[in-house]
């Protein structure tokens, strides 16, 4: 979906997406993630290519950390989708929730295919060998970051901020969502850049490029929404 254009005063009311109950979207997200998993699973049949990425590879670190990152984006998007009255914010939140849910399913399946656990290792340590990681504040000597430090570098919302988003209503909720999601997206871009610098697995590189392009476009859209809504 794309954000709807602004209609002129003399044009008919623009067609806005029908609000779906939150539980319908939740079921859709499960279906999207399952489909991504299945596509990845069947794509491996008959594949006798190079050895898969190992435990310490950039691909594995990226897949683990980005799943955590995407999970929070889906949570925030579902929260604002449930209560926003703004059609463009609703479209944006739907796109984020469904798109990132599908990507999470794909990365989950990669780790299964590669024979590595879904979790393990220090968050963001895989980025320590990349210029993108250094620019983003990841120590070059691979010194482990505390989880709260890593989450801050990844642009993730704190527990208190998530509670504030759950409690907010109306325009205040829309503006807070945009503020948190902009920071969240800005934290994802260096992760994608680091994988593009360090990785070699074609599917992972393709997804990193997709994340970079898609979230960059959404950052522009969210800045425009902030201006229209008059967010501070």
- What shape does the CA trace take? globular
Number of strands: 0
Largest sheet, if any? Answer: none
Mean of all residue-level pLDDT scores: 86
From the alpha-carbon coordinates, what is the Rg to the nearest angstrom? 19 Å
Helix content: 55-70%
Strand content: under 5%
- The N- and C-terminal alpha carbons lie at a distance of 27 Å
Unreliably modeled segments: 1-16
Structural class: mainly alpha
Q: Output the helix-strand order.
A: HHHHHHHH
**Number of H/I helices:** 8
Task: Describe this protein's structure.
The protein is an all-alpha fold and about 230 residues long. It has helices at about 20-45, 60-85, 85-115, 130-135, 145-155, 160-165, 170-200, 200-230. Helix 2 (about 60-85) runs antiparallel to helix 7. The radius of gyration is 19 Å and the shape is globular. Residues about 1-15 have low confidence and may be disordered.
What is the compact description of this entry?
The protein has 8 helices and no strands. It has 232 residues and is mostly helical.
Topology:
Layout: H1 22-43, H2 58-83, H3 87-114, H4 131-135, H5 147-153, H6 159-167, H7 170-198, H8 202-229
Which terms would index this structure?
232 residues, mainly alpha, 8 helices, 66% helix, disordered N terminus
